[in-house]
Amino acid sequence: MGIAGYTGILIMVAVAAAFGGVVVLLSRLIGKRQESREKLMPYECGIDPTGNARRRFSIKFYITAMLFIIFDIEAVFLYPWAVVYRSLKIFGFIEMVVFVGILLIGFLYVWKKGALEWGSKSI
Amino acid sequence: MGLVEIGIVLIKAVVVFACMLLCVAYLTWLERKVLGHMQVRCGPLRVGWHGLLQPIADGIKLLFKEDIVVSSANTFIYILSPMIVTGAAFAAIAVVPFGDQIEILGKKIALNIADVDIGVLYIFALSSLSVYGITLAGWSSNSKYALLGGLRSAAQMISYELPMGLSIIGVLMLSGSLRPVDIVESQDVWYIVKQPIGFLIFLICGFAECNRNPFDLPEAENELVAGFHVEYSSMKFALFFMAEYAHMIVLSALVATLFLGGWRGPVLPGVVWFMLKVFALLFFFVWVRATYPRFRYDQLMKFGWKVLFPVSLLNILVTGLGMVLWG
């Protein structure tokens, strides 16, 4: 289809973005506004919020994000392989078994280390 | 590409967008109605015949509500993030084909907005983009609940994106293309028959990606009040809401395209078949919400990483072996 197909995507993204902008602007203009100090405080079950929300959070989220990047790159490598798989035949199959096998060893290591555990057993 | 072609694309984009908005609005009605009847209630009944005008009333109400920007929030990101989420959710529909080519005034018109070779990849790219919107919304609100909701949401969505991306590789191997139209046309037998495991994994991950029950932890009402959008009001809140439903529609459309033969079917025209499949899937989304309780967070992550991820790899292996052995 070439580059011409992407015009549609550009137009669709523009329409969607414009919709978001217009709607937010509209509610800003016609919604009534009556602000007070209490109303503009972050919600914390009705009491005055204590401290800042931007504090340290669990390292687990960070580890999850790192693992995601590693294995998502694996998935991205699989995409072009999958598209031409029919013409690669048995050669392509063995190649991919080796590639995924190496990454699986890493996955098993991560599993044994406890990086996938949440709660009391987690690292 | 001439002006006429661009005009046609523009008309298609606006029509599809309007249809999506209408679908989103009435999906909320459908959900409340179906949930109601499943719990032996009536659901919305007052506004219009059987509550049919309820979504419109809700929309107008939200538009007139007070628009609050929390004083300690990071204003620019706070306003931007609902737009990112909505934009990503709505723009993803661009590559999904609704039907075969039709002829209007002697011009052949393809029933999708953009016919690109990497269509499936494009949808995945956009659906990952909404993770940014949600995380930024949680962070920029500068509220503890919102931050926790945003973090949970990000971790959940990226964890389930992985098996989701892997689960469709079987389909890509069979069809040999990333272009949605090619994938639909190669399905003489629906891929759900050849790829049942891939279909199941994709569907489960879809629920997690949309933050739907049983994976709606990011917005778990009784522990995080509302998760990442707790500080949002008025139309900004509505944008998150609409994005969630739009995401559901895009996902159903994708499942229909990849696994259920897209627009193909006997007797009825293609668009009707496509809509039937999409709405059957949307009904399934609501049905699951009425049936299952919520996962615990550690169960959710364990299930994603220790079950779905290995199983989806195994699925690729079996598909590859099968194709080598039986062509």
Question: Explain this structure to me?
Answer:
The complex is a heterodimer of chains A (123) and B (327). Chain A has 123 residues and is mainly alpha-helical. The two termini of chain A are 50 Å apart. Chain A has a single domain, classed as Methane Monooxygenase Hydroxylase, Chain G, domain 1 (Up-down Bundle). Chain A has helices spanning 5-30, 59-83, 85-113. Chain A has three helices and no strands. The mean pLDDT of chain A is 81. Chain B is mostly helical. Chain B has one domain. Chain B has 13 helices and two strands, in the order αααββαααααααααα. Chain B has a two-stranded antiparallel sheet. In chain B, a hairpin with a 2-residue loop joins strand 1 and strand 2 (107-109). In chain B, helix 3 runs parallel beside helix 11 (234-259). Chains A and B meet through helix 1, helix 2 and helix 3 of A and helix 1, helix 3, helix 4, helix 5 and helix 6 of B.
Query: Average pLDDT of chain A, to the nearest integer?
Result: 81
Q: What is the residue-mean pLDDT of chain B, rounded to a whole number?
A: 85
SS elements, strand count of chain A: 0
Number of strands of chain B: 2
Main β-sheet description of chain B: 2 strands, antiparallel
Structural class of chain B: mainly alpha
Structural class of chain A: mainly alpha
Query: Major β-sheet of chain A, in short?
Result: none
Q: Characterize the overall form of chain B.
A: globular
List keywords for this structure.
heterodimer; A: 123 residues; mainly alpha; Methane Monooxygenase Hydroxylase, Chain G, domain 1; 3 helices; 65% helix; flat; B: 327 residues; two-stranded antiparallel sheet; 13 helices; 2% strand
Summary, kept brief:
The complex is a heterodimer of chains A (123) and B (327). Helix content of chain A is 65%, strand content 0%.
